[in-house]
Specification:
Blueprint: H1 5-11, E1 23-32, E2 36-39, E3 53-54, E4 59-60, E5 62-65, E6 69-72, E7 94-96, E8 103-109, E9 113-116, E10 130-131, E11 139-140, E12 142-145, E13 149-152, E14 160-162, H2 177-188, H3 204-216
Antiparallel strand pairs: 1-2, 1-14, 2-5, 3-4, 5-6, 6-8, 7-8, 8-9, 9-12, 10-11, 12-13
Helix pairs in contact: 2-3
Length: 219
């Protein structure tokens, strides 16, 4: 990943496309022995305007760490529109695997270098950084930083919760017709994300379960 460094510094100067953080205001901290407490929500002015945002297929925004400063999860504009390539510093960030919720890709800390959200070769299936697919949604597992070691997302008390309702299919923080159209697109393409009830089968029950969630609205 050393080849990413010059481009990453240039990319940091570009105008970001961060959205309002959808991290829970109550559960918004993770812990790392070397990073200290990591606040995933409150970056920006006003607070949370540049904090971590969890979308349908990628993350964006900043984490503030008491010992090491800012960590950049991605600028919210992957080149292909769905996943960061992580081959150059101009298109880096953290991706979400739709069928499993597992995280991959790279975050960047100016003071600590690259952080591998897939954990590299040291992470097993049971410890992989991931997002739960059912409510309440939260981060689990561990990420690995070459200069800071393990980042713990797995604590039962201090964890990062995600404020989404199940009808917000594209996880943009809004419940609207775009969620309906995005679900239909995924459903007719038999995309893994269309398995709405997570029973490993895409069928009419997923369609009905999505409709129930959609018309139930968001709190």
């Amino acid at each position: 990943m050393k080849s990413l460094l010059p481009a990453a510094l240039l990319a940091a100067l570009a105008a970001p496309a961060f959205g309002q953080s959808n991290v829970s205001p109550v559960n918004n901290f993770s812990w790392s022995e070397n990073c200290g407490w990591m606040n995933w929500r409150d970056a920006g002015s006003p607070p949370a305007s540049q904090g971590a945002h969890v979308g349908a297929t990628f993350l964006s925004g900043f984490i503030w760490c008491e010992n090491i400063g800012w960590i950049n999860l991605g600028d919210g504009t992957p080149a292909n529109g769905t996943h960061y390539a992580n081959t150059t510093g101009a298109d880096f960030g953290v991706n979400i695997d739709a069928p499993t919720g597992e995280l991959s890709g790279m975050a960047w800390g100016e003071n600590v270098g690259w952080i591998n959200l897939a954990g590299g070769g040291m992470a097993g299936a049971s410890t992989a950084a991931r997002i739960t697919l059912t409510q309440p949604r939260r981060l689990l597992g561990y990420a690995w930083g070459e200069n800071v070691g393990w980042i713990n997302l797995d604590d039962a008390v201090h964890y990062v919760g995600i404020n989404t309702c199940s009808g917000d299919f594209n996880m943009d923080g809004l419940l609207n017709s775009q969620d309906f159209f995005d679900f239909l697109t995924a459903f007719f393409a038999s995309a893994p994300s269309a398995d709405f009830n997570h029973d490993a089968t895409i069928n009419s029950q997923d369609f009905f379960d999505f409709l129930n969630a959609f018309f139930a609205g968001c709190p």
